[in-house]
Amino acid sequence: MTKRSLADLEAVRLDGQRALVRVDFNCPVKDGQVTDDTRIRAALPTIAHLREHGARVVLCSHFGRPKGTPDPAFSLRPVVDRLELILGAPILFLESLDDGAIASTRRMPRGSVAVLENTRFHPGEEANDPAFAQRLAALGDLYVNDAFGSAHRAHASTEAVAHLLKPAVSGFLMEKELRFLGQALDHPKRPFVAVLGGAKISGKIDLIEALLPKVDRILIGGAMACTFFKAMGLEVGNSLVEDDRIEMAAALLQRAGDKLMLPVGAMVGPMLAPGVTTQVVRRDRVPPGWSIFDIDPRTVKMFGAEILAAGTVIWNGPMGVFETPPFDQGTLGIALTMAAATRRGAVTVIGGGDSAAAIAKAGLSDQVSHVSTGGGAALEFLEGRTLPGVAALDNA
Ligand code: ADP
Ligand code: MG
Questions:
Q1: Sign (positive/negative) of CA torsion 308, 309, 311, 316?
Q2: 221 in contact with ligand 1, CB cutoff 6 A
Q3: CA separation for the pair 8, 15 (Å, rounded)
Q4: Catalytic annotation, residues
Q5: Domains, the chain, ranges and CATH?
Q6: What is the structure's pLDDT at 11?
Q7: pLDDT reported for residue 375
Q8: DSSP assignment of 297-316, as one string?
Q9: What pLDDT score does 373 carry?
Q10: What's the pLDDT tens digit per position in 3-38?
Q11: Ligand closest to CA 204
């Protein structure tokens, strides 16, 4: 179901109105300073549009995991400071959600911006409590959800409030996420290829099951491949294997037939440490006691050929332990191939927190069609699950 978007709202619905905007400002912070403002910048198009149309913008977000009670360690203050710098305008910081705060949003000048303190300072947030949602709703005359990364959680600021405050529409970031992920899943340009990796097969079973009937090929790397190798009767040394998933992997292999491609070889090491001795081996030649920490160059080529021939590629999960060079080479090779496929006209989408970090590390984030900002939310979406924060928005 297509959702009503901020772009669909006529200017008169915005002018002078208070827009309560759920954003994802859960940024990394160290010593009171935001160390990566990607998430703040991702919300700027929505904020700018609202300000340009004379709306009064009230932003709200969770930050970290306080236990439903105010905790200075989880204050949004550092984010407010950074946003103030980026916008070059003063920001009203609403430190509590009392009647005074609600009244002050009514006195905001048109085009100005306020930020509500961490929604998780209130137990009602994670409980999706209607009374708390009612207080949130009092901060606005309309609701915009631009926090795709939080949309898989039914919390008061993502779900309940969207039923109370109308119109309830998607912001530009949310809309972009839904468009890229939705089109890839429902109307893919073919061939449609999924590239899956990461540490654990157990966390990705639902994803494999959901994608299998939709894709033309599924390429599996990362530690996940080791459980499949084991299911094929191969020895994988000390590689990360989920023994309780071997049977499942065997069944999947049977069912998937030649749709599913596994690495033909591996980069192995005696232990996980930067710059450790490595060997490139065939997948049936993993030395006892060694571990698979990356795919090998032959597999990069083989997977690469599939990616370059694809109309649509979805990638989730690094091909190796990309945090520890030289085991970043396989992931880097696939990232470069994704960029090349994009230049050839393919739609390329990357989902997953570590995968997004890997493509950023390769400096290629802007050379693919879309890098999802939603780790868990993107996964749940690709698994075909309904995201409560999306479902609660108005239909187009
Ligand atoms: P995402 O966050 O993109 O969904 P995951 O969380 O599923 O990805 O997996 C990322 C992790 O998988 C990374 O920390 C990476 O080091 C790990 N990983 C990938 N390949 C291997 C491997 N062969 N052995 C151990 N860990 C691996
Ligand atoms: Mg992860």
A1: negative
A2: no
A3: 14
A4: 39, 200, 353, 376
A5: 6-174 (3.40.50.1260), 188-382 (3.40.50.1260)
A6: 85
A7: 85
A8: HHHHHHHHHHHHT-SEEEEE
A9: 87
A10: 999 999 998 899 999 999 999 999 999 999 999 998
A11: 1
| Cβ neighbours for 255, distance < 8 A, ≥ 6 positions apart | 212
Q: Average pLDDT of 277-289?
A: 97
| CA pair distance 13, 204, nearest whole angstrom | 42
Which residues lie near ion ligand 2 (Cβ < 5 Å)?
A: 353-354
Q: Which ligand sits nearest to residue 383's alpha carbon?
A: 1
Helix, strand, or coil (residue 72): helix
Q: Which atom of ligand 1 is nearest to the CA of 225?
A: 23
Distance 355 CA to ligand 2 centre (A): 7
Is the peptide bond between 213 and the residue preceding it cis, with omega within 30 degrees of 0?
A: no
The one-letter amino acid code at 126 reads E
Say if ligand 1 is within 6 A of residue 246 CB.
no
Q: Which tokens is 235 given? A: 């020895």
Tokens of 26: 């859960």
- 292-318 tens-digit pLDDT: 999 999 999 999 999 999 999 999 999
Q: Is the CB of 365 under 6 A from ligand 1?
A: no
* Ligand 1 center–CA 221 separation, angstroms: 10
Residue 44 CA to residue 67 CA, distance in Å, equals 29
